[in-house]
Write a sequence for this structure.
């Protein structure tokens, strides 16, 4: 049992926490089933992921790849018939203390949730209560977690939070339906940051928004991240967006993480055929128009997953081995020394030269996550073409 | 508001398969709120002219609420325009019956999970239009025609006996396209046909639309919010903002050399891994209320280059290059040249660096 420190406003928490760039949340071997017994469908299998302090970690995949299930499992928000069947998610709390979120009891979770790990969901309209004003809902968070705060202090803090995301304090009395979609999502972000958590998990936070609003919110998020130093687990299907905003990216397919790399490296030099296919599914805004093919076939049915590599039925490079043996997620054979990149593909086991598409040279290494200066994650881009 | 520009500036050669002239749609506001004026309307579409030539794809790009779906519904004659004219093959569409029109202009909807009837097989979905509109000139049995339709959208003949729930999203959207093709239309209206599909299978459906343009000489209107896919698929792009087409031209010209500040904003905000420097937005904020739109240019309240004339007169489409028109006063001959030179493709996007601290206040009453 880990004893937990509940930070208050008088005691600024960061001094007590882990330093920048250190592992903050380590998920290993996470398995999630939907249903139990022989009919169970395995939605997430053996997922390992490390979120570092101050990092924006992108989790990309198509519908049914298990990316949202991953987030719900790690935050223990998964509802029946979802069952966590294995793994651990160790959250570092500083001073050598840590808590396994997957094994924590309700009391422990109650102390960690929102104070350390907050969540922003896609549909702000559904996440906000339509019959309470924005100010009431922000105040609720503070009342539950900061019992010492008085009514006036809560109000001030709520106004301060709204100001942080670019909404004027006169909106405290507004109800969710009086706000635009972008403003509702800003309120959700303000609410997630109310207790200055170390981790903010965002599940498709901008998917329902227009591109201009999306960009504005992402800029604000980057600025807030630089100021407050929280880490973000950003889940989306839009890989082209993720490459711009994330420090590193994990790609999920069929419930498994199939590749993990720094964002620029993943973009310039993908190592898994699925990543390459996904990158080839986003038409470019520049250059000559070339015919693109996307990926043939459709994502696997997890009720009857294919034998061997889950991607082999759609993979242009599939070999006999891929149809029978599951490739483990392991360091790419020829990867640069410092780059922590891994891929689950038999082409990358070092026994033969991979196809040119999957053997592009590594770009210049990106700065260590969480240590880059002000600006967005896009600052780190610009490796060799 | 008048309709200052009836004839499309960019009328190409030959008769377009489908042409809209100064389409206007006002929706009455039925609200009993205190401040609602009697007779208030939403100016959803205002004076839109669009020519869709055969064997080409016209991409209509805009954000939600810009009127692109209202425009599509008017083109499909599902809603009646407040004013304006629709020409099918050069003759007024109003003279045609609903069934005859539907035999020429077909629609593919956004959500293939709800646009197909769960209770019926694919065969039923394809047989109905064939029975209603009659078989093709090449004759053949119903089964032969269904097989041929499925082949044209790259589905196996066995798909005919499946129910929608047995198909993937991409396959369902192909069935929806096959159903539209069954009546041998000249025009296909595709309203966000891939936005509900998984990323990896979107291109397959877009490529199918491109094939149909070539093989069947279809005139296709591709409505989307995704300017990158519009550039990929479209021959021409029409950018809509607050109910009006504000820029129109060849697809790569519009995206490579955008001439309207709103198009530049849209491109600056679009996800782009190749972007050399962080995105910088010029013209933050939100579209105006369409119940009481601003006078003059509707983008003016957000526009970083706004001039006095922009508040007074609606900018007409002004030719900026061959086949490329922009509804912006900066391109008028007598405009201040020192301002208009800001409208180059790149520099204008960087004239206002992104500054989080000096951001204009947002969130006041709109």
């Amino acid at each position: 049992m880990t004893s937990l420190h509940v930070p208050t406003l008088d005691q600024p928490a960061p001094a007590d926490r882990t330093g920048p760039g250190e592992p903050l949340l380590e998920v290993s071997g996470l398995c999630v089933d939907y249903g139990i017994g022989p009919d169970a469908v395995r939605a997430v299998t053996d997922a390992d992921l490390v979120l570092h302090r101050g990092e924006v970690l992108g989790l990309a995949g198509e519908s049914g790849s298990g990316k949202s299930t991953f987030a719900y499992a790690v935050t223990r928000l998964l509802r029946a018939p979802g069952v966590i069947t294995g793994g651990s998610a160790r959250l570092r709390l500083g001073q050598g203390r840590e808590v396994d979120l997957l094994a924590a009891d309700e009391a422990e979770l109650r102390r960690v949730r929102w104070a350390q790990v907050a969540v922003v969901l896609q549909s702000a309209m559904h996440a906000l209560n339509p019959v309470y004003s924005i100010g009431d809902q922000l105040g609720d968070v503070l009342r539950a977690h900061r019992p010492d705060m008085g009514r006036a202090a809560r109000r001030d803090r709520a106004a301060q939070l709204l100001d942080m995301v670019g909404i004027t304090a006169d909106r405290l009395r507004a109800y969710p339906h009086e706000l635009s979609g972008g403003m509702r999502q800003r309120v959700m972000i303000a609410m997630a940051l109310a207790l200055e958590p170390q981790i903010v998990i965002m599940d498709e936070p901008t998917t329902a928004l227009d591109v201009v609003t999306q960009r504005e919110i992402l800029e604000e998020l980057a600025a807030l991240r630089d100021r407050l130093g929280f880490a973000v687990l950003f889940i989306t299907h839009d890989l082209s967006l993720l490459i711009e905003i994330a420090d590193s990216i994990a790609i999920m397919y069929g419930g498994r993480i199939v590749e993990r790399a720094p964002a620029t490296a993943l973009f310039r030099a993908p190592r898994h055929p699925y990543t390459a296919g996904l990158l080839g599914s986003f038409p470019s805004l520049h250059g000559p128009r070339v015919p693109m093919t996307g990926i043939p076939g459709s994502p696997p049915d997890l009720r009857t997953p294919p034998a061997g590599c889950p991607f082999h039925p759609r993979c242009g490079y599939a070999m006999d081995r891929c149809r029978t043996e599951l490739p483990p997620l392991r360091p790419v054979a020829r990867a640069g020394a410092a780059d922590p990149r891994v891929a689950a593909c038999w082409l990358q086991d070092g026994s033969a030269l991979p196809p040119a598409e999957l053997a592009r040279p590594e770009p210049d290494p990106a700065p260590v996550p969480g240590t880059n200066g002000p600006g967005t994650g896009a600052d780190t881009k610009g490796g060799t073409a | 508001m008048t309709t200052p520009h009836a004839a499309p500036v960019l009328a190409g050669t030959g008769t377009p398969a489908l042409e809209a002239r100064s389409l206007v749609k006002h929706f009455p506001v039925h609200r009993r709120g205190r401040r609602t004026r009697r007779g208030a309307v939403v100016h959803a579409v205002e004076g839109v002219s669009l020519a869709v030539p055969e064997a080409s794809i016209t991409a209509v790009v805009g954000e939600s609420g810009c009127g692109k779906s209202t425009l599509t519904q008017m083109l499909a004659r599902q809603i009646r325009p407040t004013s304006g004219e629709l020409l099918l093959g050069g003759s007024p569409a109003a003279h045609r019956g609903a069934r005859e029109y539907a035999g020429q202009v077909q629609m593919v909807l956004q959500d293939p999970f709800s646009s197909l009837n769960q209770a019926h097989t694919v065969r039923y979905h394809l047989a109905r239009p064939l029975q209603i509109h009659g078989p093709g000139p090449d004759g053949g049995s119903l089964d032969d025609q269904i097989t041929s339709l499925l082949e044209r959208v790259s589905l196996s003949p066995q798909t005919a006996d499946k129910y929608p729930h047995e198909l993937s999203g991409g396959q369902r959207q192909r069935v929806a396209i096959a159903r539209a093709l069954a009546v041998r239309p000249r025009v296909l209206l595709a309203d966000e046909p891939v936005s509900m599909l998984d990323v990896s299978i979107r291109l397959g459906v877009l490529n199918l639309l491109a094939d149909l343009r070539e093989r069947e000489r279809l005139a296709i209107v591709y409505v989307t919010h995704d300017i990158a896919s519009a550039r990929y698929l479209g021959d021409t792009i029409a950018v809509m903002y607050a109910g009006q087409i504000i820029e129109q031209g060849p697809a790569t010209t519009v995206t490579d050399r955008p001439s309207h500040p709103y198009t530049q904003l849209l491109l600056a905000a679009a996800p782009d891994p190749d972007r050399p420097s962080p995105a910088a937005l010029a013209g933050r904020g939100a579209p105006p209320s369409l119940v009481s739109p601003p006078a003059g240019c509707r983008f003016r309240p957000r526009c970083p280059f706004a001039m006095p004339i922009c508040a007074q007169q609606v900018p007409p489409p002004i030719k900026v290059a061959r086949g490329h028109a922009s509804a912006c006063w900066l391109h008028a001959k007598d405009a201040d040249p020192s301002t208009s030179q800001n409208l180059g493709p790149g520099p204008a996007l960087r004239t206002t660096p992104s500054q989080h601290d000096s951001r204009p206040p947002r969130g006041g009453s709109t």
